[in-house]
Please model this.
Amino acid sequence: MTERTLAILKPDCVKKNVAGQVIARIEEAGFTILGMKMIRLTKETAGGFYAVHRERPFFGELVEFMSSGKCVPIALEKENAVADFRKLIGATDPKEADAGTIRKDFASSKGENIVHGSDSVENGRSEIGFFFSERELISNR
Ligand code: UDP
Ligand code: MG
Model:
């Protein structure tokens, strides 16, 4: 099944100047980029995006981090996109991530872990809608 998923290059990725390298890995893994932009989240928009985690102990830190610099949300499409992207990025904590994954190679901690990936097709759809309007998603090359 062709699926869509949302990636976000987080502020640590942009600050470390590895956005290009991470995008290259995404392209090499066969994902089609439907939409991409650079934005700075406010605390309010970061908290809205991660609302599902608002009761978790790390929520405040997560909101601070995600609003601490520029992010690059990227709408992706591919066969089996959701699971394949989670596999490409690796476990949340880079210490637990498999060798060769994006988080293993670029992330410094469980909080500052370089990239977001949607965890289901349904969440992928709503997360893409959080950042992109329908006309910003361009599927023909
Ligand atoms: N996070 C954190 N501490 C934790 C768990 C998560 O700082 O103990 C942050 C981390 O940036 C993670 C994000 O919150 O990427 C969302 O957590 P989730 O469990 O959804 O991990 P993900 O789906 O990003 O792997
Ligand atoms: Mg998650």
